[in-house]
């Protein structure tokens, strides 16, 4: 994995991968991030090379080095884009159904032929690269924040005890699903998703997640 001596910040003093690149429209960013995702799926983080990404995206190497500076910066922006493209949370008026929708979305993502391997590659990269880990943490903080509203609404309706930590409830839904993906290798399907959601809902009702 190489970065060919690119600078850590761009000409505006902004760390690459933390904001949308300016200038040449979103088409360049879209092409580069698509190419980066393809390269990650094929070669993993250790094989992610900015020159190769530029070639795949049919973009000048200088543009890629200037805007993203390093493979870690590219992955950070890829995660930002993935968060931006994620579907909005479901609002059914029922905690159980909202959490099931969340769990099923996670399963669909992790079993998608492209998204699944991409997440695996990003998670593996985060285990050995601090900047990628920070980007991954931001990604999940955004997603958990978006879905926390269904827990807050459930507290407001009296479905859950006051003081329930919304983020902990949402994390409890997806945790067993990622365990299956990364550790056990057990199948992921809607039945598994519903079971994870129901378990998190039952624990929340019992006050397990009260701060």
UniProtKB/TrEMBL annotation:
Pfam families: TetR_C_11, TetR_N. The keyword Ion transport does not apply. PROSITE patterns: HTH_TETR_2. Residues 1-25 are annotated as: Disordered. Keywords: DNA-binding, Transcription, Transcription regulation. GO terms for molecular function: DNA-binding transcription factor activity; transcription cis-regulatory region binding. Residues 26-86 form the HTH tetR-type domain. The keyword Transcription applies. It comes from the Bacteria. This is TetR/AcrR family transcriptional regulator. It comes from Streptomyces parvus. The lineage of its organism: Bacteria, Bacillati, Actinomycetota, Actinomycetes, Kitasatosporales.
């Amino acid at each position: 994995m190489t970065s060919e001596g690119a600078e850590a910040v761009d000409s505006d003093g902004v760390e690459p991968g933390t904001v949308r690149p300016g200038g040449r429209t979103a088409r360049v960013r879209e092409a580069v991030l698509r190419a980066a995702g393809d390269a990650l799926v094929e070669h993993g983080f250790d094989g992610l090379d900015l020159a190769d990404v530029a070639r795949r995206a049919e973009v000048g190497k200088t543009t890629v080095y200037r805007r993203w500076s390093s493979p870690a910066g590219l992955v950070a922006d890829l995660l930002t884009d993935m968060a931006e493209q994620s579907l909005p949370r479901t609002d059914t008026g029922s905690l159980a159904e909202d959490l099931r929708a969340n769990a099923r979305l996670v399963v669909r993502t992790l079993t998608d032929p492209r998204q699944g391997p991409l997440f695996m590659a990003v998670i593996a990269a985060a285990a050995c690269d601090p900047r990628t880990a920070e980007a991954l943490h931001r990604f999940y903080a955004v997603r958990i924040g978006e879905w926390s509203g269904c827990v807050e609404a459930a507290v407001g309706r009296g479905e859950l005890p006051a003081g329930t930590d919304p983020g902990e409830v949402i994390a409890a839904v997806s945790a067993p699903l990622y365990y299956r993906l990364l550790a056990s290798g057990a199948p992921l399907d809607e039945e598994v998703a519903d079971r994870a959601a129901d378990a998190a809902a039952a624990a929340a009702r019992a006050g397990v997640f009260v701060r």
